[in-house]
Amino acid sequence: MNRMKLSLFIPKTEIEVYLERLAYEINRDFKDRPLVVIGVLKGSFVFMADLIRRLNMPVELDFVGLASYGKNTQSCGKVHLTRPLNRDIAEKDILVIEDIVDSGLTVSYLLKYLKKRRTNSVKLCALLSKPSRRVCPVEIDYLGCEVEDKFLVGYGLDWAECYRQLPEIFALEEKPDADKP
Ligand code: PRP
Ligand code: MN
Ligand code: MG
């Protein structure tokens, strides 16, 4: 693939500041109440791994897979559940973990899906949010930071499945036109 030019956008030290604050807020709000933490594959897995190690309450983990189509267009694309939740979450307190909320489509779909399941509560934690791109309004209960509309990779975020392993968040210098490298 063609190598894209990357510029450092959120360094490790800043990510750690967000992690500490988010964990503090979640620990404060839930105290010792057990929590079911649900990560949205694949992007959230690095952030989720770092965040859960800062949580003090009993935590159960699960994952859902979601794929959205048409997210790079202005239209509201469709979201498909590629990996459903294989557990009963009735009466549980749920914390959904996302790396980034962009159009809001993915997380709106997931929150609707979860709220049908007689949970006690559903909260959303996202490391990043791009409010300028929002199509579906979303309330983010725990947010790391708002970012401008740049194409970001690293720390779980990908471009065509690449760059997820980078330990910090980088901006692609040119917004890629194509979906594939
Ligand atoms: C990315 C990101 C969020 C979603 C946000 O996932 O991880 O889940 O897009 O975009 P939205 O708010 O416009 O829906 P993606 O669909 O790229 O899958 P991935 O997590 O496997 O990279
Ligand atoms: Mn994702
Ligand atoms: Mg992606």
CATH hierarchy, class: Alpha Beta
Report the end-to-end length measured between terminal Cα atoms: 5 Å
**What's the structural domain tally?**
1
**Beta fraction:** 25-35%
Helix/strand-derived category reads alpha/beta
In DSSP terms, counting alpha (H) and pi (I) runs of 4 or more, how many helices?
3
Give a written overview of the molecule.
This protein is an alpha/beta fold. It has one domain (11-150): Rossmann fold. The protein is built from three helices and nine strands; from the N terminus they run βαβαβββαββββ. It has helices at 12-30, 45-52, 105-115, and strands spanning 6-10, 35-41, 59-69, 78-83, 93-101, 121-129, 142-146, 152-153, 169-172. It has a six-stranded mixed β-sheet, with helices on both faces. Strand 2, helix 2 (45-52) and strand 3 form a beta-alpha-beta unit. Helix 1 (12-30) crosses helix 2 (45-52). The protein is globular, with a radius of gyration of 16 Å. It binds 1-O-pyrophosphono-5-O-phosphono-alpha-D-ribofuranose, manganese (II) ion and magnesium ion. Residues 43, 158 line the site of magnesium ion.
